[in-house]
């Protein structure tokens, strides 16, 4: 059984990238694999892009799709084994995963970090428990520490848009009023380390990502220095890994603005969305011809379709 939870589940990233571009050119060309198969999408947290693009991907493959916002529509789920369930939770994740497995051939699940206990989040407690109890392959729709479908879409977008063989890609921290997980940033780093790019991360002191991800990558605390000559600027907020869950919304000089983009080599702007305008990025930048945010969102469909097709074919 093949699960998809990180770039580590791929045997050959370039082969997957090639397949994604092939699917994008012929999205309805693989329907024999999805016929009479059912995808279940389970959301414990909100979504726009992941929900719709993964549904579209499955429909393009001829699959049936069922979607449930388990976090708001289902019974309250118990995640811990051995609990005496005489309090708020009504259904254990073991039964929930086992039951959904009987209705579906592949299950997608979204579960965010709670940002309260770093060890618990980084153990991927919920995703791991769900996979342990599921009887069919599971695809991550974003987990506590990773967002592989987003990163795959970002890789496709960079491949389509790059003008040189090995572009400079800068992942820049940006301010945000709320504490956000590190998942998108961790995952982007993990995928870019396997891609043919020069990756630079820039973030304020105290906001370094886990060394598990940054090992071998240039990390600069001077954003202007990092942006110099960049071909792609990927903006994202994440809360502190070191001082787990802490934020710094007052660091407004980290907002991606036109003067910042002027430091780049006519760089393209990227963000996974949803984005807080004039906090993370100015209107001027996100509305410019160099913004790729809609292209990224569009490629979510082909990333998901490639992953689902590989799972249906059960090949790595
Ligand atoms: N980028 C992304 O995952 O968007 P949603 O949270 O809307 O799914």
UniProtKB/TrEMBL annotation:
Residues that coordinate or bind N(2)-succinyl-L-ornithine: 142, 176, 236, 276
The enzyme's E.C. designation: 2.1.3.11
Aspartate/ornithine carbamoyltransferase carbamoyl-P binding domain mapped to chain residues: 3-160
Catalyzed reactions per annotation: N(2)-succinyl-L-ornithine + carbamoyl phosphate = N(2)-succinyl-L-citrulline + phosphate + H(+)
Top-rank EC class of the record's enzyme: transferase
Pfam families tied to this protein: OTCace (PF00185), OTCace_N (PF02729)
Annotated residues for binding of carbamoyl phosphate: 47-50, 75, 110, 147-150, 272-273, 300
Keywords: Amino-acid biosynthesis, Arginine biosynthesis, Transferase
Signal peptide from the UniProt entry: none
Domain Aspartate/ornithine carbamoyltransferase Asp/Orn-binding: 184-309
GO biological process per UniProt: citrulline biosynthetic process; L-arginine biosynthetic process via ornithine
Pathway per the UniProt entry: Amino-acid biosynthesis; L-arginine biosynthesis
A Gene Ontology molecular function term of the record: ornithine carbamoyltransferase activity
Assembly notes: Homotrimer.
Similarity remark: Belongs to the aspartate/ornithine carbamoyltransferase superfamily. SOTCase family.
Function: Catalyzes the transfer of the carbamoyl group from carbamoyl phosphate to the delta-amino group of N(2)-succinyl-L-ornithine to produce N(2)-succinyl-L-citrulline. Is essential for arginine biosynthesis.
Name of this chain's protein: N-succinylornithine carbamoyltransferase
Organism: Owenweeksia hongkongensis (strain DSM 17368 / CIP 108786 / JCM 12287 / NRRL B-23963 / UST20020801)
